[in-house]
Design brief:
Blueprint lengths: L18 H16 L18 H20 L10 H4 L24 H20 L8 H27 L26 E4 L2 E5 L15 E5 L2 E4 L5 H9 L11 H10 L13 E4 L2 E4 L11 H10 L7 H8 L32 E7 L25 E4 L16 E3 L8 E2 L3 E3 L3
Helix pairs in contact: 1-4, 1-5, 2-4, 2-5, 7-8
């Protein structure tokens, strides 16, 4: 069993009384995640998609400062005027920002100063929370900020893993994170679940927190289809690799084959050439054959599905198949810090292992409208040229896992905990 750490719930407590301790717990969880690092680890940016741990710690503080403290707390003095520029991620309405690929060049501010920045923001956020009794209209923005920080906690783990992976010493993020032994995980029996044709509804229904891109709930028509009861395993994907799948263009989309040739892909990210070991947050470990395959691009997921005589599900199919199922997951990586609740198994394994690629382009739902101002840039501006993933990974907070959650990445991305589930038409 993997070593586990407690994580605060993603849900805002009922009423305002529990808001301050909840805020403090979420903020403390970010600091706890970086505690195993050496100070040198905080600054490294191993590729443009990765952000240094120090930047994550500062940006999540920037979010509260920019959208709550500056406009809503009378007399607030920013910690540092240039931080508005340094730690803006992509909000054009806020103003210019430091280039994303150059975040690893920021040796200053120091880690110590970033920690002081967090303390400054926390102190003033508590003052603002105390004033919320008469300003409950700010509660949705506080809730968004906390969920935003928890998204970055997941990103910190994936980014730390990539940073450590490029080091020939193969250092572990946490050596005490033990991989489960083969046969001891909660493996779902291979099989297929069939859903009949019909007019259905997908999207968030408005009960509890959701991100704006999960709305509005709307009707979709689906033809009969089947989805696999579990994600594709390492052992199954290894068959594709050993069968020469990466050398046969017939399995690949044109852009996918171009990516294979350009990047020299021959196996999932973090697998070694022997196909026996992979790099994990616990260091170099044997590949668990029963665990879902992880760290593959959309192109690789699609190629495997074609090779297997199947396809990827659409996001509508995935959500309809997963709706109402309890959280259940195998152990994928030695970095499962936010495990699904133990002992819950269902008719399928849909949550808590890997983000699963779908065949759906990331686009707005019918009737979607982004919020006014900079907050409207949170999700809506990215609804082009990316693909939807569903489910939640071993690094995702359990309370963030829900059937309606829409993650999205470019099709060539591999450094997140990404895998796949097979689907096929239901007319068989």
């Amino acid at each position: 069993m993997a070593a586990r750490t407690s994580a605060p719930s993603a849900r805002i407590p009922a009423g305002l009384a529990g808001l301050e301790p909840h805020f403090n717990a979420v903020r403390a969880a970010s600091v706890a995640l970086v505690r195993p690092l050496e100070i040198e680890d905080y600054v490294v940016q191993s590729m443009p998609d990765v952000s240094p741990a120090k930047w994550h710690l500062a940006h999540t503080s920037w979010f509260f400062e920019q959208f709550l403290l500056r406009p809503k707390l009378p007399g607030y003095t920013p910690f540092h005027q240039r931080f508005e520029y340094l730690f803006n991620s992509y909000y054009e309405a806020v103003g210019p920002r430091h280039a994303r690929p150059e975040r690893g060049l920021l040796t200053r501010p120091t880690v110590a100063e970033v920690m002081r920045y967090r303390e400054h923001v926390d102190e003033h956020m508590v003052r603002l929370l105390h004033a919320l009794d008469a300003r409950e209209e700010l509660l949705p923005l506080v809730e968004l900020g906390l969920n935003h920080e928890q998204q970055h906690q997941e990103l910190m783990l994936t980014d730390i893993k990539h940073v450590l992976s490029v080091n020939p010493l193969e250092p572990a993020y946490r050596a005490d994170l033990l991989q489960s032994a083969p046969g001891t995980d909660r493996t779902v029996t291979p099989g297929w679940h069939k859903l009949e044709s019909g007019l259905r509804e997908i999207g968030a229904a408005g009960d509890g927190f959701c991100f704006d891109n999960e709305t509005p709930r709307h009707r979709v028509w689906v033809d009969a289809f089947e989805v696999a009861a579990r994600p594709v395993s390492n052992a199954e994907y290894r068959e594709f690799v050993e069968a020469g799948g990466y050398g046969q263009p017939a399995h690949w989309l044109s852009d996918g084959w171009a990516a294979v040739c350009e990047h020299g892909w021959t196996r999932p990210l973090y697998w070694d050439e022997s196909l026996e070991f992979e790099f994990t947050l616990g260091g170099r470990r044997p590949i668990h054959p029963q665990a879902p395959v992880c760290h593959i691009s959309f192109y690789e997921a699609d190629a495997f599905a074609r090779w297997a005589g199947a396809r990827l599900p659409t996001e509508s199919e995935w959500e309809l198949a997963a709706a109402g199922l309890p959280l259940a997951g195998n152990f994928v990586d030695s970095g499962r810090l936010h495990p699904a609740p133990p002992g819950k198994t269902g008719p399928g394994q849909f949550f808590g292992d890997v983000w699963e690629w779908t065949a759906s382009a990331y686009a707005p739902y019918p009737g979607f409208h982004a919020a006014a101002g900079a907050i409207g840039e949170y999700n809506g501006k990215f609804m082009c040229n990316q693909l939807v993933l569903r489910g939640g990974s071993c690094a995702t907070l359990a309370d963030h896992m829900r059937a309606t959650y829409r993650n999205f990445f470019y099709p060539q991305s591999r450094w997140q905990f990404m895998g796949l589930r097979l689907a096929r038409d239901g007319s068989r």
